[in-house]
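Review form for a predicted model. The reviewer records the input and the model, then writes brief findings.
Reviewer: anonymous (R2)
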Amino acid sequence: MARAIWSGSLSFGLVSLPVRMYSATESHTVHFHQIQRGTSDRVRNRRVNERTGKEVPAEEIVKGVDVGDGYVLVEPEELDDIAPGRSKALEIGGFVDLDAVEPVYFATTYYLGPRGKDHAKVYALLHRALQESNKAGIATFVMRNRAYLVAVKAEADILALHTLHWADEIRDPYEEIGDLPGRTKIPDRELRTAVQLIEALSTAWRPEDYHDTYQEQVRGLIEAKRKGETVEKGQEPPESTNVVDLMSALQASVDSARGTKKGKRGKESRATGRRRDGKRTGTGTGKSRSGGTGRKAPRPEDLTGLNKAELYERATEAGVPGRSSMTRDELLDALSGSGGRSHAKAS
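Model under review:
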C-alpha cells in the first residue's frame, strides 16, 4: 500500500471527514547521474558557504529573503506558528460547476481516501453528491510550508484532489505570444475540410493506447551504448504546410484518414473469412480464370505531376516509413523506388 503524503480533515459545512492524501501519478522518466567525462566518477552537488567555501550541514541551513540591505532569516517553526492548524485542515469554502474551471488552472492530481472504515459513509456520500451535481469543492490548505488552492471532485469510485494555479500565476496569452492570428478570415471550404479531417481522425479516448516513445528511445540508446552498438537518428520534424497547398493537404489528409479506417474494417472482414456483404470468401488457388498462375506486373505510374500532399497520401497508403519528414522529391523517390520515377522520366 502506498504511503500517504498528507493527512488531515476535509470539511464542508458542519460535516468533517478525516482523509489521507496519496500521489495519483508517478514518473517513468529515465534519471541520469552526473558523471565527469572520461571517467566513471560521480559529480555531486553540495551545499557550500559561498564565503568560506566550506560545506554546510543541513541542520544549519535556514531560509532567508533578500530585502536589499541584507537577509531576513526565517526558521521552519516560525512558518508553522503563523498558520496554526492550517496544515491539518482542508476546508471547502464553496462548490463550483466543474465545467467552469478552465484546464489551465489544473496542476497536480492526488487521491483522497477515508482515514479508517468508520468514515466510509461520509466519504461515499460526498463522492455521490459531487458526482450527481457535477460540481467541485474549492478549498485551500497548507502542505510543506506552502498554501495550495485545490478542487475536490468525484472520479470513478474515489475523491480526487487537484491542486490549482492561483489566478495571478496564469499568464495572459496575448502578452506572452506576439504573433497570435486573432480574427483571421478562414474560407468556408477550408474550414469544412478541416472539420472533416478532425471527424475522420476522431477516436475513443483510451489512454492505454499511448506510450512514451521518447523514453523508449532513451532506453534503447542506453542499451545500444552498453553493447557498443550504434543507434539511428530520429526523424526530422515535418516541413511547415505552405498556405498555397493548404487545401490540397487538408483534402489528402481526409482521404488518407478515411482510407485507413476502411482498411482496418477490410482487415477485420478478411480475418473472419467473410466479405463485407456477409458471404464467405473463397480460398483460392492462386490461379487466374484463364488458368495462369501469375499476373503481369503493373506498369509504373507517372507520379511527377502530383503535388506534395497527393504524394504524401500515396506514401501513407503504401506505408512508407519516415514520410512525415520527407520533402516532395524524397516522397517521389520513395514511391518510385521500383523504377517508377525512371519510367516517368523516360516517358
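Findings: Residues 274-294, 338-347 have pLDDT under 50 and may be disordered.
Further findings: The beta strands are 6-12, 15-23, 63-66, 71-74, 89-97, 106-114, 135-142, 147-155, 158-164.
Recommendation: see findings above.
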